[in-house]
Amino acid sequence: MSFRACLTWSLFYVGLAVALTWPAAMDPVGAVPGGARTDTADSLWTLWYVARSFSTGVMPGTVDGLLDHPRGGSLWPADPVDGLLGLPLVLLGGAARAWTALCILHLAVAGLAAHALARRLGGHGVVGGVLYVASAMTLAHVQNGASEAVLGTALLPVAALAAVVVAGGGPVWPAALVLGVASTAHAYTGVDLYLLLGCLVAVGVPGATAGFRRRLLLLGVLGLCFAALPAYVAVSASTAGDNVVGIKTARELMTIRRTIGPADPEMFFHPGNFRSPDFRELSRYGEDLVHCAYLGFVGLAAAFLSLRRGQGPWALWVGGVLALLLSMGPVLVENGAPVILSGRRAVPLPYLLVESFPGLSSLSLLWRLAQLAVLVVAVTAARAFASGAVSAAIPVLALLELRLWSPAADLPRHFDATVPEGIHALAAAPDGAVMNFPVVGARAYLWEQTVHAKPVTGTLNFPNNNASRRVWKVAMAKANAPADDLAAALTSAAREADVRYLVVHVDARAFDDDLHTAAVRAIKAALTPIHESSSMRVYAFW
């Protein structure tokens, strides 16, 4: 691809990324790509945290004075690669603008790399690029605020293209570095890439030259070497006794792999307003997460036409099928629960055979492994038609299907990163730790911390800890006591726990059935807020 063509197509995919995330480009703070009750706010906090660490001359790794107050502890950022990429953007314009720009950049790179891979394999680049980046799965990652998954979406076709170039006689070292970075950035992308690499070695690839298997094996070994040190650091920090991320235990991971983590096979083919698992039904507090690996009938039809004509490429087909099988987890699931046969037996699937392998045993959201299948469908669909006019119709039809017929028709939604006035009032208040209500996840509590700059009692995944529990215990026990008695008890308990503030976010759904609701109502009667608005109340215990 010439420089001029590369520039032209880069602009095309930037425009497509802007369209897919619209209106984020026009309002990068008020319409950040990603759902409001997903991991979006935590991803923004991670960008802020990494930039804050470097700007103060401290390597990221500890959160003393930030999370899990007063204990503090260690933290390995969930997305260290984006933390580094976004460092100058955060320093210049803040984390919200930085993530909006990074998200658009990642989608553009994903499209351009899939375009180049499709052309390398003899297909129409625009078909491969558009079908890949404008897939339901890509938009689900953006919706979930999973910055590492969005980054992995971009790095998967980049590293796959590098491997194909190596098979054709290209240099190994640059490709190995790309492979190592991709595996470090997103573990699921790393699994997909090594799965693909194994298929390329076993089956071969169009355009391969003599000795390609030796070069690909060397690529795999060097890629592991590049990824080994970051992986060791990440695992060590994430499993340390004082880590504040709340990493799941082996038992919890095993449970997720048998419930909400894997892909329900119906997910791949069911159009329309379909979710499995459906968090609209499973979530008590309105989490807006979406698991979606819909492959799209337009892309599938073109891909199978390519297969029928014997066009392959067969290594990608094998890799895509294996990725789908592994993404379904160790047992068959339906709507977040295992399918149980008579005799209380589950239906075993291939992941069960590799579940205990190093690396694979630490994965939980296995539906993300289907990303390789999305890439395979896009690249093989690009080889279906020789006519440019017919091929040009495929992306148009795929985009229409995405917006009119797919489970991602209304994705991604957007997060308003404008911090409420009450948090600015809290920032001006005297120093002290903050606890939050509702006591549930998928809330923007950490994003608010980037403004009020006070310690919070929660961790990266959970808004509660022992200090805040002690205060809540007193509030719930004395919910029916006279207001003066409750106020005195809260002041004593909060001072003892070294917690000074409570931020009550008005949330009708949480007020309906949260265990702490009675305590909040009692606190409202007993204490005068230092700030009150329609969206929140801020209380000082002392």
List the helices and strands and how they pair.
Blueprint (H helix, E strand, L loop, with lengths): L2 H18 L11 E2 L6 H16 L24 H6 L1 H7 L1 H26 L4 H9 L2 H8 L3 H21 L4 H14 L1 H17 L8 H27 L11 H7 L22 H4 L14 H12 L5 H14 L5 E2 L2 E2 L1 E2 L3 E2 L4 H4 L16 H11 L6 H17 L9 E2 L5 H8 L5 E4 L7 H8 L13 H12 L5 H15 L3 E5 L2 H6 L3 H10 L4 E2 L3 E5 L2
Parallel strand pairs: 7-8
Antiparallel strand pairs: 1-6, 2-3, 4-5, 8-10, 9-10
Helix pairs in contact: 1-5, 2-4, 2-5, 2-20, 4-5, 5-6, 5-8, 5-17, 6-17, 6-18, 8-9, 8-10, 9-10, 9-11, 10-11, 10-15, 14-17, 14-18, 15-17, 19-20, 21-22, 21-24, 22-24
Please provide a written account of the structure.
With 542 residues, the protein is mainly alpha-helical. Helix content is 55%, strand content 5%. The protein has helices spanning 3-20, 40-55, 80-85, 87-93, 95-120, 125-133, 136-143, 147-167, 172-185, 187-203, 212-238, 250-256, 279-282, 297-308, 314-327, 351-354, 371-381, 388-404, 421-428, 445-452, 466-477, 483-497, 508-513, 517-526, and strands at residues 32-33, 333-334, 337-338, 340-341, 345-346, 414-415, 434-437, 501-505, 531-532, 536-540. Strand 4 (340-341) and strand 5 form a beta hairpin. It is elongated. The protein starts with a helix and ends with a strand. The mean pLDDT is 92.
